[in-house]
Amino acid sequence: MKATDFAKFMREVHGHDPFPWQSAVVEQAVEQGTWPAVVDVPTGLGKTSMLDVAVFLLALSAGGDAPAGLGRRRIFLVVDRRIVVDQAEAHGRHVADALEGATEGEVRFEVARRLRDLAGSADEDRALRVVKMRGGATWDAAWLPRPDLPAIITGTVDQVGSRLFFRGYGVTRGRRPIDAALVGTDSVIMIDEAHLAQAFTTSLASAHEADATHQLGLPESSVIHLSATSAERPEKNSDAWEASFDEDSHLRNKTAKQRLTAYKRLTLVDSTEKKIVKEMAARVRDLLKEPEKPDESPNESEGDRVLVVCNTVARAREVYEALTTGRTRLDGVEVLLLMGRSRPLDREGIAARVTELFGADRKPGTHKAVLVATQTIEVGIDLDATDMVTETASWDALVQRFGRVNRRGDRESASITVLEDGAKKPPVYGPAKVATADFLREVAQDGLDVSPLALRHLEVPDGLSAPRPLLPLLLPAHLDAWARTNPAPTNDPPVDPYLHGIDKSTPPVTIAWRAGLVRRNEGADGEDTLELLSYAGSVADAIPLRSEECVEVSFVAARAWLQEGKSEGLADVDDYDDFDDIPFRDDDSDRQVLRRRADGWWEPVSAPDLRPGDTIIAPCEYGGLDRFGWNPSSKETVKDVSELASLRRGQPMLRLDSDPGSRLGLQPMEGLSGLVADWRNAVDPEDRQTYQDRLHGAARTWLESQEGDPEEPWTPDDMAYLKKALLSDDAFVSSNVDQRRKNRKRRPSDRRQEEPIPVLRGVVRADDWRGVGTNGDHANVADADHTTTAPAWRAVDESDVADSSALNQRVTLAQHLAAVGERAEQIATNLGLPDELRHVVVDAARWHDLGKVDLRFQAMLFDGSRIAAELAREPLAKSGMPPGDRDRHRRARRLSGLPRGARHEAWSEAIVTAHLEGLAESYPGDAELLQHLIASHHGHARPFLPPVDDRGDGVLRAAIGEVAVDVPLPVGLHLTDADRFARLNDRYGRWGLALLEAVVRCADMTISSEGS
Hints:
This protein is α/β, with parallel strands linked by helices. Helices cover 37% and strands 13% of the residues.
């Protein structure tokens, strides 16, 4: 293959030739041997096709037709907005599907073959994985099960950046090193509109300078700024280069010329803060009027799609109300509202409909529609409106908005009306908005051509862009602290300033809504009042809080809402709240919410107690949210979506303390309250188990009887998966008390009343990893009966001894170690690790579970029977007990005498250390690395293993090859492990060490998921 084959590759995959700049990037990258620092091309010219470029360059490198290390296995496309990046993920999936449909002789066939060779995959395996991040929905499990797999990943700065710096939001401490390795090594990170993520890109550059991962000889991470408005020029780095854009060659290209010269005429209209909403609505109505004569409309073949962009959520809602209610409502026109201040679960449905009506690749039709939106449409969603009405904003924000009109250039006319409200202290954009309005008054008196080509030649004065946040200096000490994932340092530096910069805004308040938190009391005046239950914290604790059910709003807005006062003019970008200057009124509302404390417990608070950065749960009865998002004036009861959020995370569960039918939009579950009362009041354990069985049976009967579709945002597929999981024989009823015991939460001394909350839980098995990233977000969408199965492959829960040592069948220790060693060698070879390192990694994989020979651990694996463990012909690695049977696991552990919190990896390390000390010749590799890889194979030992009160006085007996090893118990905690961890980070780099750990751990998890 040659670089010039890229044109044929694009024709085979997309059915058209690449734009000249895309072909030039491929040729320049091969010539330079590095990635460009900046790709700055006009809107509408296919920046997303940099994914195609990255896939093609990976294949070139894999076949030796491009410099080694140029292609990267993991290709990230990053945006800095809350809106889901569905279209970028769809583009990546189209590329992946095209590779599967290739025939021999095509360029794409050769690309697919080379990608499979990178991971040693069979011809029937997918050549390219595609993963979309949704606020942690798939990332909380194993979003990519092996570090040698080629993949396209789309996500936000928070999702990618936090994982890169070992502090993944919503990710368990044990999983963080794997995620850091997958993002920080062998990756290319493309940041769309990189000027919005300047802090992140600056931090990335500093991290590269302060790390030694390059000593592994493997590719690190490269960053590409994708921007249509401008970005940091590469002159600061002599090795960096910018992708060229030849204007003349694009004007000779018919499609490129059509998009570059797409007709867009801007008109500035001065208004006032009082009149602007009415005037925006009037402009929309004028655009939708039918022409008096058919030939007056040059675009009559397609229905009008008018985009209205407002700077604040409040103004967007006012315009939406003006267009949908009263005498000014639009008849026969679909009006939508899209904003970032919404729950991700709610926003998905709205975003899907917006894409259907306004997407650049939508089907033609005559249906008229209006989309009222906030800044959330500026980045990460490919819209193509026929006309636009927008508020004035900073110039860079306006340029982004212009790009959402006549994007393909296939309309003969398109109007952009910019309205200026004359605010003296404009929110969000401040002086930049005022300066932009002054600039437009000068240059747009007779209208202004804002086509992509015209904008490239327009001279824009300084001071029209929103000010950038302060950029903190990233020091090696910060990286050292973040690399210590488990346990993390007490003075752990925050990651957020290094992703978004330091600004004056106060931390937002995160709000979720739950049902069953209040009781209604009849007031003296005849009106009902809502009182928070004394055990509301127990209700909230029953189902873990998920980001998918939360909305972030400013501290000011949250406090005003609780006080039932005037709402604040929120935007969809962070703004300076300056709350010290706001005269909060005396609280005349007794509404309470639950606030999460630092220890994880929930406490009741009212408005005066609220603080910036709080996470709160509000009763659904308070309102404050509608189907579009944050709406503090709404009094409608909010839908509780906590069970749906857990389901999308692969944890099916159903609260049984209150009617689940009302939460899912299904028929009510009759007689539930009586069953729950009997279960709670039972004192005798046998009676309690009897009532628990009745409760479980009633829930099963109710679920089986539900035939209708649930209410949005639930889908029929969601309901099918929930029923499949909860009607299985492995499902069980437990209480939040059981879960707290599992998570070892300490009870607060000042807690309010507690109440056990019954929860029906489904068991999530470790599905086959080979389906990850091959079919949307689902590993296996349907089984042989066409029934929906788990939403994503989830690795074994490494934090729990029961989960990590349980499968549906017994597996001997020798079988497991041999299989993991073989898999680790395969991965290490595919990655191209140096021979000495590969030898150490494989030895660590072959010996990682030797500590399970402890007789107490074996007794636990044999259902708590010490006699069965002693009589067994060989030790086990997996017990065969169902992973979800907590009662059986607890019983086995209690009977075994295994110390609380015991970690078999500590014993494994001790055995290997004794083996190394007994060798006649030195170990032919890095002994410190070997010890660390074994100790850290469940995410601990970074730098310390957890301390355990082990009163055991026996001996660990194991064999490594033909050599027997005895280690006396107990095994102590070694404080010198911290020094070893620091030396290894210096030796291999922080991300390099994490990658070596990931090889061992991913080999272990994938083998376990296959049943070995």
